[in-house]
Amino acid sequence: MRRWRRRLLLSGKAPVWPEDVARHILGTVDSTMMEAARLAPHLSGPAWILAREQTAARGRRGRAWRSPAGNFSATYVMNPAARGLTKGPAEVALYSFIAALALYDALADAVGPAASLAIKWPNDVLLNGGKIAGILLESTGEGHLAVGIGVNLVAAPPASEVEARAVPPVSLEGETGVRIAPEDFLTLLASAFAHYDVQFRTYGFAPIRTAWIARAARIGQVITARTGTAETIGTFEGIDESGALILTTSGQRHTIAAADIYF
């Protein structure tokens, strides 16, 4: 039995698949985000789509996302209105924070208390200071939300393929020696995601924001936020009620809705 599974069973924390969420396991697909858009009109409720191989995966801003066999590539797709979300795109965009918290918990469950995990604004999860996972949100033509998630379970791209100043990529197996099948990781992730989803839909963003800040990388430290060709360097104070980044520079508070972050 895998070490992570034995530990969960002994602790009584074995994950349970959410009863109202469908699960689609695919062999090869262009991307789970594209498959989510194709499936969305036919879904009666939320669903997870997992692919063992993607041939045209991408990340934020159209960047290529490498996804070798054994890594995790999945998309959660749902209809916001059917889930009681009626405040528009700004509310739906907060699912990036829900996904980050769920990823953090799923990785912690897989590795155990020795894992050094953190969340990097706006959409990355770090392990031992390196990027292990990324998140991408998109709206489909049918009014659904697709939350794409990629995790380096067994392999990370070489540093030569990463843009300058970016956090270097790492893999779960390379950093911890833990090997977990994508299907097993999906169960951990879906269980954690359902927990934060219910919390968000019941109590709003406040508890999600508090939990996210408690897990954030470089809180209280100087970071750089780049938007286009403009850069703002300041102390990372957290996120506001809309999820925007808060930086303080020479006593001046800056609120940044979208940017690339560099440490």
Describe this structure in words.
With 263 residues, the chain is an alpha+beta fold. Helices cover 28% and strands 29% of the residues. The protein folds into 2 domains: 3-213, BirA Bifunctional Protein, domain 2 (2-Layer Sandwich); 218-262, Roll (SH3 type barrels). The protein has helices at residues 3-11, 32-39, 89-92, 95-111, 172-176, 182-203, 206-214; strands spanning 22-29, 47-54, 72-78, 117-120, 124-127, 130-139, 145-151, 222-227, 230-239, 245-249, 252-256, 260-262. α4 crosses α6 (182-203) and α4 crosses α7. The radius of gyration is 18 Å and the shape is globular. The mean pLDDT is 91.
Summarize the structure.
28% of the residues lie in helices and 29% in strands. It is α+β, with helices and mostly antiparallel strands and 263 residues long.
Oligomerization: single chain
The helix-and-strand class reads alpha+beta
Main beta sheet: strand number and arrangement? Answer: 7 strands, mixed
Share in helix: 25-40%
**The CATH H-level homologous superfamily of the largest domain:** Bira Bifunctional Protein, Domain 2
Distance between the termini: 39 Å
Order of helices and strands: HEHEEHHEEEEHHHEEEEE
Features:
263 residues; alpha+beta; 29% strand; 2 domains; BirA Bifunctional Protein, domain 2; SH3 type barrels; 7-stranded mixed β-sheet
Topology, element by element:
Elements: H1 3-11, E1 22-29, H2 32-39, E2 47-54, E3 72-78, H3 89-92, H4 95-111, E4 117-120, E5 124-127, E6 130-139, E7 145-151, H5 172-176, H6 182-203, H7 206-214, E8 222-227, E9 230-239, E10 245-249, E11 252-256, E12 260-262
Helix pairs in contact: 4-6, 4-7
